[in-house]
Amino acid sequence: MSNKETKTDVILIGAGIMSATLGTLLKELAPEWEITVYEKLARAGEESSNEWNNAGTGHAALCELNYTVEKPDGTVDISKAIKINEQFQVSMQFWSYLVNSKLIQNPQDFIMPLPHMSMVQGEENISFLKKRFEAMANNPLFKGMEFSDDHKKLMEWIPLIMQGRPADEHIAATKIDSGTDVNFGALTRILFDHLQTKNVDIQYKHSVENLKRTSDGSWELKVKNVDTGLVERKTAKFVFIGGGGGSLHLLQKSGIPEGKHIGGFPVSGIFMVCKNPDVIEQQHAKVYGKAKVGAPPMSVPHLDTRYIENKKSLLFGPFAGFSPKFLKAGSMFDLVTSVKPNNVLTMLAAGAKEMSLTKYLIQQVLLSKEQRMEELREFIPNAKAEDWDLVVAGQRVQVIKDTEVGGKGTLQFGTEVITAADGSIAALLGASPGASTAVTVMLEILEKCFPNHIDEWEPKIKEMVPSYGTALMDNPELLEEIHRSTAEVLALSKKEPSLADFSNGETEQLPETV
């Protein structure tokens, strides 16, 4: 054991997309600041941000039906979809800035153009989808969205899904060509490679065991080398906890009041991955359906074209599972040890409220492969079991907290940022839309935690994100310019990527199969 103690300006815990984004922003805004990153795994982007653990949908609310809710009067509320789309536009602008500034190269290594579609069956669902389309189609954020319930048109859009269906089946879809597939694992690694050139100290295989306040208001972290067991202490003025599901334990150890009365419930996922190239080539879109009753939003079924390991892939899922681990590389005791005196009542209240979720998870865990194939055949009627393997996806920890609207023990399905009153520490919890909105979330952290610097930083922020502080929906000309420029810079103008688009020859590790 070592008692070595050093100081730095900023510590980022976890080498995922959130820390990568925050570190990159800070190096542009305050290049003189010293930044240290601690990651307990061997490289960046291996947990929640990994391409096999992340849906890869550039979440712009183009196809996710859970972001648009039908109200009692029959109208469809698209306010959440508008918010998420605006946030994704912020990410696109920032990535474009990095490419234009030659801070990162080859955008095709992490982002590809891909149509986003919503598909439903049955007259009631078709009525909802049509009302959703009508509410969105005239909004400039969703320009270009199409609706069809015509089998001939749908055969053009999604031939793999339409083959083998009866001619009188009630089915409809919306389609928008401005969607994207984002490899957040690749993007994370690209950003950390960039940060290393900016003298950011990145310590892999280092686990943050504890943290505490010092007398001057800084934070002292106890950090263990995973290989040697040696311990060092590092002090920083600001700490960001971006450790995926592992963030909750560290937030609790910080002792800040804002972290009390918060719990977490882990949900794991399993995808089916197609191994037949002929089947894969017939699908070129992300097609989202409707979640089953009682299912968490992260379990919305989708047939998902992806670009992973320099090739086109096709996934279906996710099927929910349960593990008490908060991370794939976590401990079986994660859930138990997260229960504290200050959140036990919150956790118990959530357990009583979420019986339907518990029942759903049990049903999902007990599914056989053939039962999963039957769900896949709701999307692909002619699907063959021999063409598909099961792979374990990532762990997500849904936040449980007390809210005014939902009461005690309310399960939250979004992304939550917890910050100390003095702005010296911030933690990111939760799940979807997560990575797609990373830039917006990190800018909000900068505003909350560095209010004395925001006026000084604002010109540079607007250089990186021209729409900063502006509602794009209310500025169609600016939106049009941003759509045009980001599509050009990120090479999103053409519709069908080819293998030549990939410049990175690195082969990623295959996911765990079950």
From TrEMBL:
Domain of life: Bacteria
Organism for this UniProt entry: Fictibacillus phosphorivorans
Coiled coil location: none
Catalytic activity: (S)-malate + a quinone = a quinol + oxaloacetate
Keywords: FAD, Flavoprotein, Oxidoreductase, Tricarboxylic acid cycle
Protein's recorded name: Probable malate:quinone oxidoreductase
GO molecular function: (S)-2-hydroxyglutarate dehydrogenase activity; L-malate dehydrogenase (quinone) activity
SUPFAM superfamilies noted in UniProt: FAD/NAD(P)-binding domain
Cofactor: FAD
